[in-house]
Predict the structure.
Amino acid sequence: MPASLSKGSSSSVLRDLPVLLVAVVWGSSFLAVQRVAEPGTVVAMLVLRFGLVLPLLGAVAWRALRRLSRAEWLGGAALGVVLSGIFLLETYGAVHTSATNAGLIISLAMVLTPLGESALGRTTPPRAFLAAAGLAVLGVALLTGDGGLRAPSLGDLLVLGAALVRSAYVLAMARSRALRDTDMLAVTWVQLAVATAVFAVVALSVGPAPWTVARSYGVGQWVWLLHLSLFCTLFAFFVQMWAVRATSPSRVSLLLGTEPLWATVFGITVAGNRPGLLALFGGALVLAATEWGRRTAPSPRPAGGGNGTAAGVDARAGEPTKEPASA
């Protein structure tokens, strides 16, 4: 093998590895949530999780925050309110269902978002994409019914709701003219800050206070909480900022798309989830269908024929992202 080819392959692996690690930690986030939260402490845990991140991210984003206009602050704040709803649905769902189910069901947003894009643009998606969407729905039905006719659990429905709202959030973010070409770091901080403020207000009347929950955590729970804050959020954000410059967006998307696979691996090997054979087949259908859907989804149309982007936060687990803007 030529030395230059070997060197190029090694360099590609080094660029891909951090992005793949992001997919792995995202896949572990549902298990982490189950380790640090119960139904009564979800809101308090969310305050702690993002309260730990905000000062660190804010210190880096301080200069960019000072340059934001009033419209950008308001646009980021509005999206932050929606984001808080996604986190609440997803986290409550995660503590009421298995880590495997949560990780696979939330991945339906990959299919739902292009469907919403086509509906808003009054266009018909490719037949292959529609087939992938139908296959994903069948897979979820087998997964949540555990291969039978059992109705989905409350947790399954909450996570499905989170996937629907996440898709709406991505579409709204991409269409937000106020945030077009806005500094990604700054608007991410605004959205997370507003979401955390919503959690703090809700925590006044729902469950124990965040500081009470913090005092009750043992070493293991603090490790999982720091994992959610530092790795699933902060590490993921900076890796994505680096990756969009170091490699192609399609390659980043492909690697991050392995998140449901890792969620399944953690759910079965660590959380001890034991789905039946038909449920496992359903999970495999979801994985195959979402990847097929990603490859056949219609491309979003830039607004006004431009190449603008809108910055925001990927609501899987609080991970920032940059979505293509569209009409």
Remarks:
- The chain is about 75% helix and 5% strand.
